[in-house]
From TrEMBL, chain A:
<dbReference type="GO" id="GO:0016020">
    <property type="term" value="C:membrane"/>
</dbReference>
<dbReference type="InterPro" id="IPR017871">
    <property type="entry name" value="ABC_transporter-like_CS"/>
</dbReference>
<dbReference type="InterPro" id="IPR003593">
    <property type="entry name" value="AAA+_ATPase"/>
</dbReference>
<keyword id="KW-0813">Transport</keyword>
<feature type="domain" description="ABC transporter">
    <location>
        <begin position="26"/>
        <end position="250"/>
    </location>
</feature>
<dbReference type="InterPro" id="IPR015860">
    <property type="entry name" value="ABC_transpr_TagH-like"/>
</dbReference>
<keyword id="KW-0378">Hydrolase</keyword>
<comment type="similarity">
    <text>Belongs to the ABC transporter superfamily.</text>
</comment>
<dbReference type="GO" id="GO:0005524">
    <property type="term" value="F:ATP binding"/>
</dbReference>
From TrEMBL, chain B:
<feature type="transmembrane region" description="Helical">
    <location>
        <begin position="238"/>
        <end position="258"/>
    </location>
</feature>
<keyword id="KW-0997">Cell inner membrane</keyword>
<keyword id="KW-1003">Cell membrane</keyword>
<feature type="transmembrane region" description="Helical">
    <location>
        <begin position="103"/>
        <end position="126"/>
    </location>
</feature>
<dbReference type="GO" id="GO:0005886">
    <property type="term" value="C:plasma membrane"/>
</dbReference>
<dbReference type="InterPro" id="IPR047817">
    <property type="entry name" value="ABC2_TM_bact-type"/>
</dbReference>
<comment type="similarity">
    <text>Belongs to the ABC-2 integral membrane protein family.</text>
</comment>
<feature type="transmembrane region" description="Helical">
    <location>
        <begin position="28"/>
        <end position="49"/>
    </location>
</feature>
<dbReference type="Pfam" id="PF01061">
    <property type="entry name" value="ABC2_membrane"/>
</dbReference>
Length: 398, 269
């Protein structure tokens, strides 16, 4: 095997048997067995997942709730065994999955650290070597001889987290840890992650927080419905994730639709010709097509709304190109939004008749505009890019 | 899988230490309970069966024989009961860290064994007080202990595996242990059965627990023919070998079933 590989996930598939019957009694089980009902259904959580984490990678796994990322993490940590495929881990793996890694409330903090260390495969001497660092990082010096049941929940998590990150494993696996502790502890974790990224140790991080993923990870995968949707560059992954989230958010909101005179228009469709993820220099280009069922004049009106600020950014219509009579209509629209910074937009297209009444709505679509021309170390440009419109002024100092 | 890898040794040591530490956590006299409890239980059994019901009055030193058998039975009960629950009770750990699962059972066995050894010291003290003189034959206690540990561990493996899926096993095993206690010549001497029903006595003796108890009693020389072992009751070698073989078979099957299913424990719990 290649020496440079830290973790190799080789075409891994995983399913669970979920009981379909609510009851678990002997009688129903027997009756179902006789009827030939299996009593469970196979839930395919991961389907043919395949990727490699190289040594020194800070690898991100992102995905929505229920996409299978925690299951994947448990497979990497060898807590679950996959139905198909293999997992190869090169070196000692330390994982921090779910909060509070099996601490015993009746033991003192110190005893728990040693027990936890033994669970992870470290001897007493090895733990003694790292003990001071762990306690130091957790900031719990004066509590280490207290029983764990007297700790606050935040203190417990801090201790567990410190054990995980200070244990000298080769691969560190972390699940949703960015909410651990108070602000100062989080800042400390942030520093630690940045330092770790530079140090060349292998880390696998599962997160919802795209900011964190972009900040720490050099590679990432996006998991959706048990499949890898995007793999590779962390920015691609993060943008796709944001777009997906926006899409569902917008669709969920558009459920509250106004009653529309459906009978006038059929097959209204809006399709992007260009990408949905663009930079300010790219064109927004989409196609609208619909069938008019009754003899009337129609035009298309649309708006681009900033999702975060909930304001119209850009509206336009085809009032000057009224369609006449029944039949199929198709139009392509192109525009450019080259003045803006990063934006999440929703595109709402409607068809109106001559009396300006809306007679049809299209499903909402989203467009994600991200600037890619700002370098990471240009603090001035980055700061200015938080506004809606790109900066174009000049300074004159006297 | 290598149970004796360095990592597993460390883990086993820590788990045993923790369990031992936690056992009498919060009690005033702590470890003393592991001696006091069997002694007090023995006093009850002694008063009920030896003094009032007059069991084993024909057997010399029956009081010590009763204490010895109870001690062995307690080890068996503790290992199987705790073993059965152990995997489920460590469920939160199983779902977070990957480690060798048989270690969980071995740590339970190790703790029960510590208790057994402490209790055996009490038994030895009692037998001296009772005026029993031991010979070098006592050394044969060791292989019998190994047999006992294998038997109890094997059953604990099987129970723990089934219990993960079927919690019904809890009450079932409780009843089973009660039946086992009375089905084994512990509180009554085997001659009480063999005098009237010799065949039933022989069947009872095929149970490894009965065989271990009677062999131990024999070795500690306080029975002779008044409290016979299986090989004193029959001369058919294929019959005699059965109870000695069962523990090894049970251990093999138990370990096999347990390791075969252990990769799924984290999902089911």
């Amino acid at each position: 095997m290649n020496d440079n590989i830290a973790v190799k996930i080789d075409h891994v598939s995983k399913f669970f048997h979920l009981p379909t019957e609510a009851t678990n009694s002997l009688r129903t089980t027997l009756v179902n067995r006789l009827r030939g009902i299996k009593g469970y259904k196979e839930q395919h959580v991961l389907k043919d997942i395949d990727f490699t984490v190289e040594k020194g990678d800070f690898f991100g796994i992102v995905g929505r709730n229920g996409s299978g990322k925690s299951t994947l993490l448990k497979i990497i940590s060898q807590i679950y065994t996959p139905e198909k495929g293999n997992v190869i881990v090169n070196g000692k793996l330390v994982s921090f999955i779910e909060l509070g890694v099996g601490f015993n409330p009746e033991l003192t903090g110190k005893e728990n650290v040693y027990l936890n260390g033994a669970m992870l495969g470290f001897s007493r001497e090895e733990i003694s070597d790292m003990y001071d660092e762990i306690v130091d990082f957790a900031e719990l010096e004066e509590f280490m001889n207290q029983k764990l049941k007297n700790y606050s929940s935040g203190m417990q998590v801090r201790l567990a987290f410190s054990v995980a990150i200070k244990a000298r494993g080769d691969v560190l696996v972390l699940d949703e840890v960015l909410a651990v502790g108070d602000e100062s502890f989080q800042r400390k974790c942030n520093d630690y992650f940045l330092e770790r990224k530079k140090s060349g140790k292998t880390t696998i991080l599962v997160t919802h927080d795209m900011g964190a993923a972009k900040k720490y990870c050099n590679k990432a995968i996006l998991i959706e419905n048990g499949l890898i949707k995007v793999s590779g560059d962390v920015n691609d992954v993060a943008n796709q994730y944001s777009l997906d989230n926006l899409q569902t958010e917008v669709t969920a909101r558009s459920d509250l639709e106004i009653d529309v005179k459906e009978e006038w228009i059929e097959n209204l469709e809006v399709n992007f010709i260009n990408q949905q993820k663009i930079t300010p220099n790219d064109e927004v280009k989409f196609e609208v097509s619909y069938d008019v069922k009754k003899d009337t004049e129609t035009y298309i009106a649309f708006s681009l709304t900033d999702v975060d600020r909930n304001i119209w950014i850009y509206n336009d219509n085809s009032l000057d190109y009224l369609t006449k009579g029944k039949g199929h209509n198709r139009a392509i629209y192109t525009c450019k939004l080259d003045q803006v910074n990063n934006l999440k937009l929703k595109l709402q297209v409607s068809i109106r008749n001559k009396r300006d009444e809306m007679i049809a709505f299209a499903d909402e679509k989203v467009i994600l505009i991200n600037r890619n021309d700002i370098s990471d170390d240009d603090k001035s440009a980055q700061d200015s890019a938080t506004g809606l419109i790109q900066r174009n002024g000049s300074w004159e100092f006297e | 899988m290598n149970f004796f890898s360095r990592r597993n040794q460390i883990l086993l040591k820590e788990l045993v230490k923790t369990d031992f530490k936690l056992r009498y956590q919060g009690s005033l006299i702590g470890y003393l309970w592991s001696i006091l409890k069997p002694v007090m239980l023995f006093v009850i059994m002694y008063l009920v069966f030896v003094r009032f019901l007059r069991f084993g009055s024909a057997v010399p030193h029956f009081a010590v024989a009763l204490l010895l058998a109870l001690t062995l039975w307690n080890f068996f009960a503790e290992t199987t009961n705790m073993g059965m629950l152990s995997v489920v009770s460590r469920g939160d750990l199983l779902r977070k860290i990957s480690f060798s699962k048989p270690i969980i059972i071995f740590s339970v066995v190790a703790n029960a064994l510590i208790n057994l050894l402490i209790s055996l010291v009490v038994v030895v003290i009692f037998s001296f007080l009772n005026g029993i003189h031991m010979s070098w034959n006592v050394i044969f206690v060791l292989p019998l202990l190994v047999e006992l540990v294998l038997f109890a561990t094997g059953i604990a493996f099987i129970l723990a595996t089934i219990f993960v899926k079927f919690r019904d096993l809890g009450p079932i095993w409780e009843v089973g242990m009660q039946a086992g206690l009375y089905g084994t010549p512990i509180i009554y001497p085997i001659i009480q059965v063999s005098q009237t029903h010799p065949t039933i006595a022989k069947i009872l003796m095929l149970n490894p627990m009965a065989q271990i108890v009677q062999d131990m009693r024999y070795i500690l020389t306080f029975s002779n023919n008044t409290n016979p072992t299986l090989w004193q009751m029959t001369d058919k070698p294929y019959l005699i070998i059965i109870p000695y073989l069962i523990p090894f078979i049970i251990f093999g099957i138990g370990l096999w079933i347990f390791t075969k299913n252990s990769s799924k424990f984290a999902e089911i719990i």
